[in-house]
Amino acid sequence: MGIKTLTIADLEEQGPRGPVWILNSVATPKLDTSAEIVMAIPGLHGRDADALVIKETWLPQDAAAMFGRERLLQSSQFRTAVASGVLTIITPEAAKEIQARPGAREEQARLDDTERHVRKAGAARTIAQSNVDMYIADEHGRPVKDDDDDDSNDLKVDMYGPDEVDNVAKLAKAGVEETDDGFKPSFIMFVDKIRNGTDMAALNAIRTRGKFSRKELRHLRDNLHKHPETVRAIKEKLVELKRKKKPLLV
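and the corresponding structure tokens:
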């Protein structure tokens, strides 16, 4: 039985108060990477917009916890993110079920640790200060249209201000080269990183990143010898993909 989802209309019907449980859905069959999402929430009494940060994780998050449901529903960026599939609204029951899954406690500890480091490093810039925008970018850093039939690994979601696009394009161009074995350098770096961590940390990182080709899944299976639970989950996913022949989403 799948995760029960909600729409913006469902939230409006429920009223202006209450939690809004969402999943960061950037990692989909159409996109190559997971990412933290930042969006503008209208300020009170005509003040500047506040920044809402949706963390890069597979755990559900209550998007209304900081600003409330009413202000959240007033945000055109939030509505656009839901409509485009970047965010998925789920029921409180579904959120509770996900939070009870193996690895959830470790993933939450990782998020808490990251937040502590961010606080020590200094306050994040607001939407107004950063002048950020959210879009799907091609390998040259240019916005592209979403294509339901495109199952390539060359799309990503990133948050860039207009002055950063040129630098992003240069980095992206350097990053699309493949290694001799046909893997992107970013994937090889990802494998090296999780190989040095714990079994559960590796599994959580794979869940968060979200999308892999069958070739990449087989590479992970064959190179994470010290991570039995992760390998088991990958093997199950490969069997499922072989049976269903559907988009590759871990």
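(Above: one complete record from the training split.) The first strand starts at residue 5 and ends at 6.
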